[in-house]
User: Fold this.
Amino acid sequence: MGRISEQYKYKTTPVSDVKAVVQGKNYRFTVLTDRLMRLEYSKDGKFEDRATQMVVNRNFEVPEFSVTERNGSIKILTECMELTYHGGEFTQNSLSARFAGNNGDTRYEWYYCENQYNL
Assistant:
């Protein structure tokens, strides 16, 4: 199969603003919006920066968020969600998120690999 002609190539901006990235040796979280985060885990510490069919542009305006680290755990808090990561490979016990409803109360909780909610 030949290369794609320049006239058919789609312009992408797959790399996020570094101010939106929370990264450690084996994990990388990118806060794309106050409701959307990109979650990555890599045993070798190498992460993917190419565009995907789902998201061809990750260079969004950086939303307001805070990061708290305590006892080996990380919490990333935005206006609408709180992501908690306890370290290690992503599992139900190491990665979860809580999402706020309109009044700020927790609307629902999500755990990695849980299929109850389509996130």
Remarks:
- The chain is about 0% helix and 35% strand.
- Strands lie at 21-23, 27-33, 36-41, 66-70, 73-77, 81-85, 95-100, 106-111.
- The chain has a mean pLDDT of 86.
- The two ends are 35 Å apart (CA to CA).
